[in-house]
Amino acid sequence: MNYELRYAAHPEDFKSYDAARIRKDFLVDSVMVPGEINVVYTLYDRLIVGGAVPTDKPLKLEPFEEVKADYFLQRRELGIINIGGNAKITVDGTQYELGYKEALYLGSGNKDVVFESLDSSRPAHLYLNSATAHQKHPNKKITLDMAVVADLGSGESANERRINKLIVNDVTPTCQVQMGITELKTGSVWNTMPPHLHARRMEAYLYFEVPENEAICHFMGQPDETRHIWMKNEQAVISPSWSIHSASGTGSYSFIWGMAGENQDFGDMDHFTQQELR
User: Fold this and answer.
1) How far, in Å, CA of 131 to CA of 123, rounded?
2) Residue ranges covered by each domain of the chain
């Protein structure tokens, strides 16, 4: 299990960052590595973002130095979404099987979490979001047919999309973590356009189902001082609460959004028009 610590930045400092610094601080480029768990511990709302790819051996979720815990979920909760082959996750002796685009919420207090792939030739790709938790909520497996669904955008504006809200309080209680999958319709390339902010929570995106020779251009920064990051399949990006989070793809794609912070209301957004962007 590998981890990295990322510090938070002031938006005024961010204005001076070049492309290399932006990628270093906000891009999580090695999320899914066969046979490994890789996570980034960001000080934006203390969200942990990462991935687990079990192959021929199980992978156990372990604490690391910065969390100062006897076990990973001692004071944390965890959201998991599978974007690979079928997975088996064993939690304190209870087994959960996750198929493609299925989710699992684990509350604080679970001691032993072990990831396995049912077929090592088609390994699971488990995307992980973990936030601090001060109350224990029940574990729950969540499938796409259990999601709260919202259809937004239009073909005329190239942002027609379906939002599948998987780990949200309308489906299962959580302390902070909220996660879901947004799927773009054929011919649409823009997500979350027009953009928005939510100062009461940060967000992270994982882009997937991106064809091999295509790319994602993710936009971030304050609305009047935007920057961009070019991204590939199964890479993640950290979005501070002061930053917009929007993207366009050179081909079809989907993405997982995850949030942590003060407010769990999905509609808590401060909207901006395209004409306000700089």
Assistant:
1) 26
2) 2-135+142-276
Q: Is 245 a known ligand-binding residue?
A: yes
Count of all residues that appear for the chain in the document: 278
| Amino acid occupying residue 177 | V
Does the annotation list 137 as a binding residue? Answer: no
171 Cβ neighbours under 8 A, 6+ residues apart: 140, 142, 146, 147, 148, 165
212 is in an annotated binding site: no
- Alpha carbon distance 164, 174 (integer Å): 17
160 is in an annotated binding site: no
**For the domain 2-135+142-276, what is the CATH superfamily, name and number?**
Jelly Rolls (2.60.120.10)
Q: What is the pLDDT of residues 19-50, one digit of tens each?
A: 999 999 999 999 999 999 999 999 999 999 99
User: 150-166, pLDDT tens digit by residue?
Assistant: 999 999 999 999 999 99
Which among 116, 83, 124, 139 is positioned nearest to 258, based on CA atoms?
Answer: 83
pLDDT tens sequence across 195-246: 989 989 999 999 999 999 999 999 999 999 999 999 999 999 999 999 999 9
Beta bridge partners of 113: 91
